[in-house]
Here is the input.
Amino acid sequence: MSVEDYTPVTVERELQALANSVAKMIPELDRLDREKARTKRELDRAIARETLVADGATVADRAAQVELATIKERDEKEVAELAAKYAANQLRALETRIDILRSIGVGVRQAYALAGRWEP
Here is the structure.
């Protein structure tokens, strides 16, 4: 929709739709944050468990064993972090769209008021 197509009513409708989208994202963001925390705990436990059983000759050997033994947990943690980051970026994008639409709404209301076609 171009700026010329907006009316005070269409601006309000779009703002409401965006607000609804934000509200729907909140439970998903919460779920992703909990998943991120869960995978971090699992990685921490795996590192501790593998550190106890590592039997390399040097500290570097034992660290390498731990690294190799916890790849799955590291991958899961990274995926969870990326998913949470993506969702947070999507939320920020929606909030930016809301801010832009609010600015457009101010201009539309002023134009309608100047034209005498709408009064709040």
Q: What stands out?
A: The two ends are 23 Å apart (CA to CA). The CA atoms of residues 17 and 98 lie 10 Å apart. The chain has three helices and no strands. The longest helix spans residues 8-53.
